[in-house]
Amino acid sequence: MNGFTLFLTGMQRSGTTLLEKLIDLHPDASMLSQPFPLLFVEAKRDFLRGLGRCDVRYPLGHLFLEDGYRQEDFDRHLAELRIDGARIAEIFAEMQGFSGQYTRFALSTLERALPRLSPAGFAELLAGLYRALSPEPDVPVKGGKETICEELLPYLLDRGWRCALILRDPRDVVASLNHGRGPEYGGRLKPTLFNVRNWRKSVAYALHLEGRPGFLWLRYEDLVTDPRAAVRRITRAFGLCDFEVGEVRGWTGNSSYGERAGVSTESVDIYRQILPPSVAQFIEAACLPELRLLGYSASLEASEASGVLREFEEPYEITREGIESDLTAEANAALEARRLELLAESPSAALKPWFLFERAHERLREAFRT
Fold this sequence. Notes:
The chain is an alpha/beta fold. It contains 18 helices and five strands. It is 48% helix and 8% strand. Helix 10 packs across helix 18 and helix 14 crosses helix 16.
């Protein structure tokens, strides 16, 4: 078969690692798990610096109310971006001890790989790294997974990559981030609203890119309920031969709630046991259109959502800096309520920066008004 590069992404704690492990079982694929996350951060920081924004703490952010650039501006920057071998070596050195890097490499491996990379656009650089650092050099499909990199998907698809995005119930996502071993994987706690807005970004990209050749989105719940069917969807979407999904050897999962024996449904709807009810209800109110569209349960009526948003008080202690704009506040509650109002108004009422893509907005509007 002809080779290609495969990229997987999604929000933290959405099942990206499980998806990567299952695809890595394919005889024609070799997937790396978060091998160079700070390289993606560097690419976005470089873009923002060009806009005069040098103090953004989390450059791969949620994009809510972002009106400083267009998607095509970022795509153009990635195509023109050149990162030389010396800077790449510095980035790998910065990742030593960084918990967000899952796949690590011996210094000798990097010393062999980096000189072979020639300055090129970002997609070519990534593809070269995936090839050079793969433990299986002879398989035709190379790639990897990184979280919160949805912004790169249009650019990569334009260059012939195959891409998959995984979504999970946002209440389970926040439960996994904030409880159990979640902080080991997601770091110090972030505001609930920050996590909510990041999740909505994932949904927006899934809806925007749906139906595009080389792209597929899927739900975590469907993956764990019937992994064979879910993986078969992926292989057929990407032109891979079907294969029997077996046991993921040497990996006991990275659940926030302890080791899991193989693919497990135990974490589905776990928020019912874990999350404070006020948090679960707030997430439902802020994500109600998306929950309805994606087939997740929701107990609120649309008329109730604004009241829930305005009454919410953050129960978690937030110590991170740089995300003050997403803290619980009356102004933020008003913004979230206004977003829901725009979905209930005429189609032309909701434009950027309130919604990332027109197609996603129309799909959400229809779901919210049903």
